[in-house]
Amino acid sequence: MESAVKWRYRVKFIEKVYFIALLSILFMAYRSPSMMAWLLYDQPHISISLLALTVIGFSLANYLLEKRTHKSEMQAKHLKEKLKDAKRLLISQMDPTLVEAVKEIIKADMQEEIERMRDSDQGCSQKCRLSIEM
User: Fold this and answer.
1) Residue 32 and residue 65 share a domain
2) Is residue 71 located within the same domain as residue 11?
3) Rounded to two decimals, what is the model's pTM?
4) Are residues 55 and 114 in the same domain?
5) Within this chain, do residues 58 and 124 fall inside the same structural domain, yes or no?
6) Which long-range contacts (CB under 8 A, 24 or more apart) does 5-13 make?
7) Same structural domain for residues 109 and 60?
8) Structural domains counted in the chain
9) Are 7 and 69 in contact (CB under 8 A)?
10) Rounded Cα gap, residues 18 and 47, in angstroms
11) How many angstroms separate the CA atoms of 72 and 75, rounded?
C-alpha cells in the first residue's frame, strides 16, 4: 500500500512540474510570434499530439494509482477485521484466569506509563498545563 501511495504522490508532483514547465513554454510562445508559429504551424503533429498524450498519460497514471491505493486500503481494512476476529477467538479459547492475569499486567504497565507521562512535560498538553496551573 505504501508504495502505491508514494508513487501516486510522485506522479502528482511530476505532473505539476510538467504543467508549470508547459505553461512557461506556452507563455514564451505567446510572447514570441515566431515560436508560436513554429509550435502551431511548423510542428503541429508533434506539439499538439505530445501535449494531448502527456495529459492522457498523467490522467491514466493517476487513475490506476488511485485504484491500486483504494484496493490496498480495502485489503488492509479487511485484514484488520480478520485480526480482530482472530484476537477475539484466541481470547475466548484461553483460560479465564490467564486472561485476567494478562489484563492486570497490561493495566499495571499502562498505569506506570501514564504516571511517567504525567510527571514529564511530554505527556501534558497545553490544555493540561493550563488546568494544572489553575
Assistant:
1) yes
2) yes
3) 0.54
4) no
5) no
6) 5/69, 7/65, 8/62, 8/65, 8/66, 8/69, 11/58, 11/61, 11/62, 11/65, 12/62
7) no
8) 2
9) no
10) 14
11) 5
